[in-house]
Amino acid sequence: MIQAIAFYLFAAIVIVSAALTITSRNPVHAVLWLILAFFNAAGLMVLVGAEFIAMLLVIVYVGAVAVLFLFVVMMLNVDFAELRAGFVRYAAIGLAFAVALVSEAVMALWGYSAGAIELARRTAPTPDKVPNIQAIGDLLYTRYLFVFEAAGLVLLVAMIGAIVLTHRERGGTRPQNIARQIARRPQDATRNTQPVVGGGIEL
Amino acid sequence: MNHASLMMVLPEEILTIGAIVLMLVAAWGGQGATKMISWVAVAVLLGAGIALAGPASSGGAAFDGMIRADAFGAFAKVLIYAATAIAILMAPRFFRQTTGDDLRPEYPVLLLLSACGMGMMVSAGDLLVLYVGLELQSLAAYVLASFMRRDARSAEAGLKYFVLGALASGILLYGISLVYGFSGTTLFSSIATAYAGPHSLGLTFGLVFVFAGLAFKISAVPFHMWTPDVYEGAPTPVTAFFASAPKVAAMGMAVRVAVEAMGPATDQWRQIVIFASLASIIFGAVAAIGQSNIKRLLAYSSINNVGFVLVGLAAGTQAGIAAVLFYLTVYVVMTLGSFLVVLQMRGEDGQPVETIASLSGMSRTRPGLALALAIFMFSLAGIPPLLGFNAKLAVFDAAVKAGLYPLAVAGFVASVIGAYYYLRVIKVMYFDEPVGEGFPKSGDVVEGGLIAAAAVFVSPVGWVLLAPLGIATMAAAKALF
């Protein structure tokens, strides 16, 4: 009973917030609605027992992708009215994509009772009675350890590459030198003077 | 997971740790430390090469078969590490003279990480390892191609390489996902079982896409379009690197996938390999004729040579794979030698000169350099008694023994077309009147020594190496069967 209530709650909020994502006029609001949709989709994943995907949704999509969207929307100042101006021009292509998507959805509904796909020789059969985070962790840090570490190296190369290609030393900047600031003594920086009345001060 | 597995990937571990430590040194040392970092990077590569003598070349399967530590991988890695070391050594002088600024220390670090990725490619026993290794190598290569970011051509080369490389990775991944979907595994040994039994059309589709992706990475026709532009635009030491180490890695990867994973489907992939081979030999030769830039010419030469290597793969036998490895060894030496000579081509202002016309009369202004380039060109053309001839002989011999007579005859005839443009370079050097003073002497002992060593290797003196190389390539090829 409680599952049914939770399911309808999550599902209803996902649909409503998804609809608001594409209809809201303010792009920042749209991204915020999208984040709400992600959170509720994660709730749905928890309900079907896929807690790993639920966490991925929250960490990757909400934590990284949606925040990136927000940054882009705020910093690039996209003019949505201008984007919508090409609607008629690209309507045909958009329609083709829509038809493809709808037919995929129809086929998926068609095959939903056809049963699971039989994979002949699974490298790692899905274990019963083990939470899927534990099952993934067991494999990720033993059998797939090497690939996992290598994937980290790929990210390292991407970071080095981004810095090599874009970083440059700017001349004429005045960066903070903390060591010099700390080493500065009062007697070097201040001076006691006894100015005469009305005589002003010589700097 | 146990210690034995970790010992079998010791070369990769040495390269990774070396690269990370050197990056920290680079962060504090800055551009002044580049020379020291380059030499340490070469030492790291040497250390990784020495580590190959241990379980890394004889251990068998590591990480439940995801890594194959065998003689084939070890042989390819020796070639890869050596070519990477030379690409590191030839860079500092080129960048200082061309940009007027010291080379940035990230260059040797990226090459080390790329070498690590290439090592994964040639010793992969699983499609996952293969793909991650390939991406590690490619990602570093994209950055290296546009390393001279102020130079418009270098930036263009990087962008082109990135976009087309990503497309190739997409094609390869699509093939991998089809193979995984229809066989239920990414392990090479289990995929071979799936191909051996009665299998659906989906597996065949997967095979076609995987081979298309591989052909892209080895720049075989019809997936070669990126090669001339990238080779021309990238800085010359980087081009030399692209033409040597990643070629060996991609070829080794293709051989391993073809034999270990898709061996039972040899009849299916042989058609693809034969087409790519002949198309590469003929197109590489014909398109090179009109080139006036020496780097573009060498790019078409590399396409042409990949065609010959594929002849050995098409044979699909142990002798064929041994011939592939032998050809790659000779090819790497010839190509690196040629690019080292191209590095010496500089005008009075110290800027690089890349036209073939500027070579005219080099036999009188720089006789030693001209002789070395002549040896490399004769060898690339496959003229006896140079080693390039033995390499071509080995692959055609393997093809004939496997019964592929039409391929051997067609390849042989097409190699005559290729000889034309190699000989044209020699004609320009020896029979044309010199223009100007000729290239100024660099006086760099390391580069001069490397050119001399490469020239001696492909010259008839190299025949003494035929027997040990033959034994090593046969032992390496045996590991796959």
TrEMBL record, chain A:
Leading EC class: translocase
Entry's Gene Ontology molecular function annotations: NADH dehydrogenase (quinone) (non-electrogenic) activity
Membrane topology field: Multi-pass membrane protein
Top-rank lineage group of the source organism: Bacteria
Catalytic activity: a quinone + NADH + 5 H(+)(in) = a quinol + NAD(+) + 4 H(+)(out)
Gene3D superfamilies assigned to the protein according to its UniProt record, in alphabetical order: NADH-ubiquinone/plastoquinone oxidoreductase chain 6, subunit NuoJ (1.20.120.1200)
Cross-referenced Pfam families: Oxidored_q3 (PF00499)
Keywords of this entry: Cell membrane, Membrane, NAD, Oxidoreductase, Quinone, Transmembrane, Transmembrane helix
Major place of residence: membrane
InterPro entries to which the protein is assigned, alphabetical: NADH_UbQ/plastoQ_OxRdtase_su6, Nuo/plastoQ_OxRdtase_6_NuoJ
EC number annotated for this UniProt entry: 7.1.1.-
Membrane-spanning segments: 6-23, 30-48, 54-78, 90-112, 144-165
Compartment list: Cell membrane
Function recorded in the entry: NDH-1 shuttles electrons from NADH, via FMN and iron-sulfur (Fe-S) centers, to quinones in the respiratory chain. Couples the redox reaction to proton translocation (for every two electrons transferred, four hydrogen ions are translocated across the cytoplasmic membrane), and thus conserves the redox energy in a proton gradient.
Protein name (record): NADH-quinone oxidoreductase subunit J
UniProtKB/TrEMBL annotation, chain B:
The organism's taxonomic lineage, starting at the top: Bacteria, Pseudomonadati, Pseudomonadota, Alphaproteobacteria, Sphingomonadales
One Pfam family matching this protein: Proton_antipo_M
Limits of the NADH:quinone oxidoreductase/Mrp antiporter transmembrane domain: 124-418
The keyword Transport appears for this protein: yes
Source organism of the structure: Sphingomonas immobilis
Coiled coil, from the record: none
Chain segments annotated as transmembrane: 6-29, 36-54, 74-95, 107-124, 161-183, 203-226, 238-259, 271-290, 297-315, 321-343, 369-391, 403-423, 450-477
GO molecular-function term, one example from the UniProt record: NADH dehydrogenase (quinone) (non-electrogenic) activity
Location(s), subcellular: Cell membrane; Endomembrane system; Membrane
Function of the protein: NDH-1 shuttles electrons from NADH, via FMN and iron-sulfur (Fe-S) centers, to quinones in the respiratory chain. The immediate electron acceptor for the enzyme in this species is believed to be ubiquinone. Couples the redox reaction to proton translocation (for every two electrons transferred, four hydrogen ions are translocated across the cytoplasmic membrane), and thus conserves the redox energy in a proton gradient.
Name the record gives this protein: NADH-quinone oxidoreductase subunit N
Quaternary state and interactors: NDH-1 is composed of 14 different subunits. Subunits NuoA, H, J, K, L, M, N constitute the membrane sector of the complex.
Broad enzyme group: translocase
